[in-house]
């Protein structure tokens, strides 16, 4: 049983990483555009992060964790997780950039990496928790004779 969980976890992590690259691109593109338009960095961070969150939910729901049904429950949990992550990443940027004087872009990079770790853990074990997978695994084993 454990051997079947390891490949699934690895597959999920790889796809989560690929989706994360796309989300990071969305986040950075929107952040860059908004700061170029002279929007304060904290407002730009919130808006850019929100754009990445929407993309992330849709892609992770469909491809990473292959979840169906209970859209609103998953969306609510995803929004709550990402509000927490937004708070943590914003505080991280505040501390690094405003308090320690580290470059805005280095601060953004560190905050983004921290956000990835928080989001994978929260998504895997709370938002897209595999409640229906045992039934799916049982059905797939019945078809394969395993």
Structural account:
The chain has 146 residues and is mainly alpha-helical. It has one domain (2-144). It contains 5 helices and no strands. It has helices at 2-36, 41-64, 71-99, 104-127, 133-144. The termini are close together. Residues 133-146 have low confidence and may be disordered.
Helix-strand blueprint:
Layout: H1 2-36, H2 41-64, H3 71-99, H4 104-127, H5 133-144
Helix pairs in contact: 1-2, 1-4, 2-3, 3-4
Total tally of structural domains: 1
Spans of at least 5 consecutive residues whose pLDDT stays below 50 are 133-146
Helical amount: over 70%
End-to-end separation: 11 Å
Element-level helix/strand string: HHHHH
What is the overall shape? elongated
Topology, number of strands: 0
Q: How would you sum up the major sheet?
A: none
Number of helices: 5
Mean pLDDT: 84
Structural class: mainly alpha
Portion of residues in beta strands equals under 5%
The Rg value, from CA coordinates, equals 18 Å
Short précis:
The chain is mostly helical and 146 residues long.
């Amino acid at each position: 049983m454990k051997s079947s969980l390891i490949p699934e976890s690895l597959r999920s992590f790889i796809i989560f990483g690929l989706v994360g690259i796309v989300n990071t691109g969305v986040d950075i593109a929107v952040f860059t555009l908004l700061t170029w338009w002279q929007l304060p960095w904290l407002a730009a961070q919130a808006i850019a992060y929100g754009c990445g969150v929407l993309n992330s939910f849709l892609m992770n729901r469909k491809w990473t964790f292959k979840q169906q049904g209970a859209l609103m429950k998953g969306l609510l949990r995803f929004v709550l997780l990402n509000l927490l992550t937004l708070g943590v990443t914003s505080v991280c940027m505040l501390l690094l950039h405003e308090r320690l004087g580290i470059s805005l872009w280095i601060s953004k990079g560190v905050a983004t990496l921290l956000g990835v770790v928080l989001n994978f853990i929260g998504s895997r074990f709370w938002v897209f928790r595999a409640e229906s997978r045992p039934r799916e695994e049982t059905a797939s084993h019945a078809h394969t004779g395993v």
